[in-house]
User: What shape does this take?
Amino acid sequence: MDSLITAAARALAAGDPLGALNRVALRGDAPALALRGIAMAQLGDFVRAKALVRSAARAFGAKEAVARARCVVAEAEIALASRDLAWPAKALDHARKTLEEHGDRVNAAHARALDVRRLAYIGRLDEAERQLAALDTEALPPASQAVQALIEAGIAMRRLRTLPARAALARAEAAARRSGIASLSAEVEAARVLLDAPAARLIARGTQRPLLLGEVEALLQTPALVIDACRNGVHAADQVVSLATRPVLFTLARLLGEAWPHDVSRETLIARAFRIRHLDETHRARLRVEMGRLRTVLKPLASIHATPQGFALAPRFAQEVVVLARPVDDDHAPLLAFLSDGESWSSSALALALNASQRTVQRALDALASAGKVQAIGHGRARKWMMPPMPGFTTALLLPAAWVNE
Assistant: This one.
């Protein structure tokens, strides 16, 4: 490897893409193409970066397996940075195995970390944690250690484990400082700000107040009956009833929880849960059916009593009923949570991350665009969506993650 290539690689490792381009911008050999692609990715031109890295992979040829595998890893990182979550994971796994077979532990670990980040984005946290546990960090450079610690902190925040999240952020901060890369230190600080920002709202007895992520974690460990509107479930002590796939039942449960210890009129329940303005006897009959279903699913945690005006919730063991609401009242809050990272997302990537149909996501994006909350960039298949970061609250409880009984 010649001196210019070596100098450009060192510049990229130090977070200086312009310095790297100054050395290899006019060269068209395979190593230079790869370095130019990585530099363009660091500068945010992902389209050009992807084309350069692919050109480098072709230029290396079949005999240079390690170099080609590194290009695959670089392309995967570019895809992740541009929120292309449908990028083929099998190609990345094959590249990782090739790097491991040839003793390139650093890039092999980086490939695994990219897969972990992708799994975390789409809510597969159990698998992400298993992959993360298999990473060997001791031999990694400081920048890679910082990235791994950031991933660990992000998963811990999604799991509502604030102490492990703070410990991981402390490790990330120390590693970022050792790396000397300012942008990495800024990313760690941004994650710390999210951890210390309001994550939800507590609604109880007609009042509400914001909660930090640590306070949410503490709340879920109390004996109170918590109706969690962030993840659409009902929680009491170590028991959880998920209503994520039954939105009508959850809406009824939330209305009863917000009114507790008082009852809610039948008219209010019908109008809010069924979204109907003009009521008739068929709607009252449907309400009785849905209340019967809600009684069945909540039987371990609470009972529901009919009153002259409507229905009231009565916890079986808890002394208090509270509602844990999202920090913002918006039907599209989970979608906004992903877009709030400031990156541009395709509708297909958002559909994959939210586990929803692309058509459903597209309708939501059109509604948000009409309200001026998001904006589209590009046309056709190249169209992406983005918004400025939403300051003042963390998005951890808006991102999809299954309930875990521990």
Notes: DSSP finds 18 helices and eleven strands in the chain. The first strand starts at residue 198 and ends at 204.
